Amino acid sequence: MSVRHALLALLSEGPKYGLQLREEFEARTGEVWPLNVGQVYTTLQRLERDGLVESDDEAASGPQNSFRITAEGTQELDGWLRTPPDLASPPRDELVIKILIAVRLPGADVHEVIQAHRRYLVELMQQWTRLKEEEGDVDLGLALVIDAEVYRLDSVVRWLDTADGRLKRAASQPPAPAKTAAPQIRRRAGVRR
Q1: What is the residue-wise DSSP string for 10-79?
Q2: In this protein, which residues make up the domain named Transcription regulator PadR C-terminal (predicted)?
Q3: pLDDT given for residue 143 in this prediction
Q4: Per-residue confidence (pLDDT) for residue 34, from 0 to 100
Q5: Which pTM was predicted?
Q6: Architecture of domain 3-82
Q7: In which band, very low, low, confident or very high, does the pLDDT at 136 lie, cut at 50, 70 and 90?
């Protein structure tokens, strides 16, 4: 999450104080990502250092200053909004790594590992769905966060189901000679070595 760019976006609406930025950030993101006011001021100092924001009152530095975005900050914000995040490489997902390690770990019951995580994820999905029913229509930001979480958790559950099925099929077939993925396939998928 880019707090830096979120603050630039809020400042693009006009000058604001640090505390005001923290409150608006939390309100607009459904209050699911608490933001420490110290982090806000640290980020503002870095943005000011980089020439992306400036204090309205440079003579009296401190937390009571309001900040405004500069032309360079507006350009940075515009670039961030239009640039897709780097999704070309698979993320280092702890659950994926855990399953991959468990597959080759002697004595590990991979099916049980998968099912334990699946149960937990389904419970999380149910919690988010209940929250959506109770508060999803109240706050647009929260509703969007809930949708994203439900879809994300659903995709992980589907991956676990697919992995479980693949492992069961593999266990029922005779072992094939080990192969390594062709280098061009790894490059196409953005896999780093």
Answers
A1: HHTTS-EEHHHHHHHHHHHTTT-S---HHHHHHHHHHHHHTTSEEES-SSS-STT-EEEE-HHHHHHHHH
A2: 92-167
A3: 86
A4: 85
A5: 0.72
A6: Orthogonal Bundle (1.10)
A7: low
Q: Which residue has the tokens 């104080």?
A: 17
What is the rounded distance in angstroms from the CA atom of residue 184 to the CA atom of residue 71? Answer: 42
In tens, the pLDDT along 29-52 reads 877 888 888 999 999 999 999 999
- Phi and psi dihedrals of 68, rounded to 5? -135, 155
Distance of alpha carbon 103 from alpha carbon 101, whole angstroms: 5
Q: What angle do CA 72, 56, 68 make, to 5 degrees?
A: 35
DSSP class per residue in 71-88: HHHHHHHHHHHHSPP--S
The residue with tokens 């350009």 is 75
Q: How many residues does the chain have?
A: 193
For the record, the structure tokens of 164 come out as 């479980």
Beta bridge partners of 54: 68
Sign, CA torsion 47/45/29/15: negative
Tell me the mean pLDDT in the region 175-179: 66
- Are 45 and 23 in contact, with CB atoms under 8 Å apart? no
